[in-house]
Amino acid sequence: MESKISYFIILLCSLLISITEGIDIPEQFQKSNHTNNWAVLVDTSRFWFNYRHVANVLSIYRSVKRLGIPDSQIILMISDDMACNPRNPRPATIFNNAHELISVYGDDVEVDYRGYEVSVENFVRLLTGRVHPDTPRSKRLLTDEGSNILIYLTGHGGDGFLKFQDSEEVTSQELADALEQMWQKRRYNEIFFIIDTCQASSMYEKFYSPNILATASSLVGEDSLSHHVDSAIGVYIIDRYTYYVLEFLENVQPNSKKTMSEFLAVCPKSACLSTVGVRKDLFKRDPSKVPITDFFGSVRPVIVTKKPIEILETPKRKKKIIAENKTKAAEKRGYLPQFPVHLVKTS
Amino acid sequence: MWASASFVGVLIIIGLPLWWKTTEVYRVTLPYDKISAFDTQSHAITSELIVLANDAHTAAEVAGLIEKTFMDSDVLKLKITKRLLSEQLHRTLDSVADEQEAVEEVGAVLDLKEHNKLYVVQRGPLFKDVWVGGERVVFFRDAKAAETLAKVLKQWIYEPSVLEGARSDTADSTRRVRFPPGPGYHVVLSVVHPRPQDLKVEFQAGDAMEDYIGSSVDELEVLHNFTLKSQWLYLLNFDFQAKEVKDGSEWGRHWAAREEKLQQLLTRLEARAATHVSERPALNLALYVVPCDRAPLAIYQHDKKVSAPVQAFISPKWGGVVFGNPTAADCRQESPVWKPPVKLIMGTFIAQLRELLGITDKSNIEGAYLEPLRSVIPRRWEVDSLLRIRSLEQITSAERTLQSLAQLLGEISNIVINDEVGASINAAVEAISQAGDLAIKGDLVEAYRKSQTAFLAAETAFMEPSLLALLYFPDDQKYAIYIPLFLPIMFPVVLSLKNLLMWLRGKPVHKEKMD
Question: Which is one Gene Ontology cellular component term of this protein (chain A) (predicted)?
Fold first, then answer.
C-alpha cells in the first residue's frame, strides 16, 4: 500500500515538474541587436539558357519582400531580363515551377543594377560603399553598424570564383576582402551569405571577418544541379537548392518562429543531389536559436509619440527664400477638341 | 659572351628594379603614427558656467556642489565662474513677477546669445527650486536648491551620459534614434491621402512645411543644412487590420491598430515617397489622412489605447508618421471636407523632428520646473547640447574611420593610396587635432565645424572610389601573368649565368676548341 502511495506521489511530482517545465520556456531565441535589415541579391549570368538563375534570385527577392524588407533596402542585381525576353512565351512572368504555381516576378520588381551594370567592380563597390559620388541613394548599400545583411549570389562558379556576365569573375579572396572592409567600416552587424553555384562552398572558405554565417548549395568538387525543365520555355527553370529554399520560405510568415538551423537544413542530399555546405565558425550566435526573420524579415523599431508640442502662435519663417527665379510658366496651349461638341447645345 | 652578358645586364640590372618599381602599389606616406595614437575615449568638451548669486557664500556653495557633481565625468569639463549679482539686477530680479520678464532683464545686462555659456542666476521669488526656460539662463531660489540645480544641469542641460554615448563604441539609446551625423538632411513632408474621392483635405502642406518646420530648422543652421520639400501621395492604401471598438465618442467607435502593424506602413510609404531622389539622407514626415470609414484610428500599445492628442509614432533614423483623423462632423457632411488642426499636427511633427535630430526628451525632476516648449524653435541650450554631442560624435567617428582604414591597408596589401586619398587623410588628421583642441578650449561652434570637416574628410578617404583600383588584381593572379611572360626569357638567361661566371673568372669557356 505504502509503496503504491509513494509511487503515486513520485508520479505526481514528475507530472508537476513536467508541467512547470512546459510553462517555463527557456530563452529560445538569442536576442539580436540589429536595427535594420538589408538584402543584396545578385544574379550574375546572362543569356536565355540561364533563365533559372533569374528565377533563383527572384525567388529570394520575393521572399524577403514578402517578409518585410522594403525595396529601398533590397539591392537587386540581375544581368539579364528574362521576363521581357522575346523567347519567353509568357511575357512579364518568371516561374519557379513548370506548373506555374508561383510567378516570382510578381507585380513590382525594382531592379537596381541590370544588364551590363552587373559587374564585379560594381558589386565590390556596392559592398564596400566605394561608389561614384553621383550614384543615387537607391543604388547604394546604406548600411550601418546595426544592419543585418542577407547576401545571395547565384550564377556559374568554379573552385574559388564566381563568373560574372561570361566575361569576368570575382574570386573568393576578393569577396573576403570586401567583407572585411565592410566590417572595418562598421557597415554590418551580421551577414548571412547564401550562394547557389557549382562548387559554391569554395566562395566562403576564405572569409575571415566576424559575424558571418554562410551557406552554399554544394561543396568543392560538386556541381549544383537544376531542378526541372519547363518544356514550354525549353530550358531549366530553377536550381534545386533555391527551389527547396523557396518552398521552405513560402511557409515562413513574418511572425513565425522558424530558426536559421532549420533553414540551413533545407535541401538534404537526397533532394539537392549536392551537399549543402555551412560555415558557422565566424558566427557568434547559435543558428538553432536565431530566428529566420533576423535575416529574411525586417525590424523597424517604432516609438509612439505621446507629447506633441503645443504651439501657441503660428510661426512665420523669417528667412524666406529670396524670390525664386522661377521661369515664367509658358501659357498653356492645346488643341481644340476634334469634334466641337461643346458648341452644340444639348438638351 | 658579350651578348650573353648584355642580356643579363639588361634583365637583371635594369629589368628587375624597373619591374619592381613599376609594379609597386602606389601609396602616399600616411601619418600612421598619429592615427595609431588616436584615443577615442580621451576627447572632452569644455563648457562655461557662470554662477550669479546674491552673496558670496551662496555662490561658493552652489558652485562647489556643481563642481562636485561633474567631477567624475571625463567627457565634460565645466569652467565655473562665481560672481555676485549687481545690486540693481538683484533688485529687479526680486521685484519682477514673471520669469520670462526676469530672463529679459538678465539678457539686458548679460550676453545670452553666446554659445556654450550658461548663466545660473539666483532669483528669490521662485515658486520652485529651479526654473529653466528657453534661453541660456537657469534660475535657482537659494543655496538649498543647489542639489536640484546640479540634477537639472546633469539630466537636462549637459547630459554627460549622452555625450559618453556619442563617443563610445556601441550606440546608446539616443544614438540609435537620432540620425547619423552629416552635413545636411532632406526633410520631406508627405501628405498621404488614400481616398481622395471620398474626402477633401484642405491643407497647405508647402506653407506649413515652410513656416513650422522651416522656422524650426533655421535655428539649427549652425549644425546642418536642411532642404524642405512637401508632396501629396494619393491612393496609397494600407490595411492596418484595425479592429472596431465601440466607445462613447462622437463617432461611437474607434479603430484599434496594433503597434506591431505600424512598421509595415513604413515599408508601403517608402515605396511611394521616393525620398531617395535626394543625395542627402531623407527625414520623412508623413501625415496619413485616415479615410472616413476607418476613422478615428488609434494606436494600441500592449492592448491599451495610446492616450495622446494626436496619434503618431516615429521610426528611428527614418522619420515620423502622424495620423490625421477627420471628425465625425466632417465625414457626415454632404461632401466631406476635413481641415486638419495645423498647429496640433505640426506640433507633433516638430516633437518628432527634435527627437530624430538628437534633442532628448527631458524627464521630470522633483523641485525643478522646465518651461514647456510653446513654439517651434528649440531652446537655446538644447542647440548647445546638440553641438556638443555632434562634435564628439564626429571626432570619434572620424578617428575610428581612419584607424580602420590604416588597419585595412596593413591587412590588404594591394590597395592603392593616391594623392587625393592621402590629402583627405592628412586633412582629417589635421582637423581632428584642431577640433579636439577647440573643444577643450570651449570654442564650441568652431570645434563643431572642424569636427565636421574631419568627419567628412575621413568618410571621403574611406569611401574614395579609387581605393578599389588594385583590389581587382590579387597576388595569385599576378603569377599567372608573369610566369608565361617572363619564364621563356629568363630561362636561357639563367642558364647562361654559369658560362658567364666562368668567363668572368677568366677561365676558358670552350675547352675543347682551345686544343
Answer: GPI-anchor transamidase complex
Question: Which residues pair with residue A238 across a beta bridge?
Answer: A228
Per the CB < 8 A criterion, the answer to whether B132 and B156 are in contact is yes
Q: Note if A13 is an active site residue.
A: no
Q: Report yes or no: A277 and A172 within 8 Å, Cβ to Cβ.
A: no
Contact: B462, A186; criterion CB under 8 Å? no
Residue corresponding to grid cell 513677477 = B97
- Strands (E) in B199-310, as ranges, are 200-201, 225-234, 243-246, 253-258, 282-289, 297-301, 304-305
The predicted structure's pLDDT at residue A19? 43
Active site residue A228: no
**Residue B9 to residue B21: CA distance in whole angstroms:** 17
Q: Which of A149, A150, A143, A152 is nearest to A186 (CA)?
A: A143
Cα Rg for chain B, rounded, in angstroms?
34
Pairing between strand A74-78 and A36-43? parallel
Of the listed ranges A223-237, A317-331, B89-103, the one predicted with least confidence: A317-331
Helix or strand holding residue B190 (H, E): strand B184-193
In chain A, what residues touch B303 (CB-CB under 8 Å)?
none
Give the residue among A149, A153, A204, A148 at the shortest CA–CA distance from A175: A204
Most confident listed range (A53-57, B370-374, B454-458, B474-478): B454-458
Arithmetic mean of pLDDT over chain B: 87
| Bond prior to B181 in cis (omega within 30° of 0) | no
Residues 6+ apart with CB under 8 A from A124: A130, A170, A174, A178, B468, B471
Extents of the domains making up chain B: 2-19+472-504, 44-165+364-374, 183-357
What's the CATH number for B44-165+364-374?
Answer: 3.30.379
Contacts of B313 in chain A (CB under 8 A): 302-305
- C-alpha dihedral (B139, B142, B145, B151), degrees to nearest 10: 40
Helix (H) or strand (E) holding B77: strand B76-84
Q: CA-nearest residue of chain A to B344?
A: A310
Output the pTM of the full model.
Answer: 0.84
| Interface with chain B: mutation pick from A33, A112, A123, A304, highest number of B CBs within 10 Å | A304
Rounded distance, CA A257 to CA A262, Å? 10
| ipTM value > 0.95 | no
- Domains, chain A: 35-305 (3.40.50.1460)
Exposed (0-12), middle (13-18) or buried (19+): which is B65, by Cβ within 10 Å? middle
Residue A107 forms contact with B (CB below 8 Å) = no
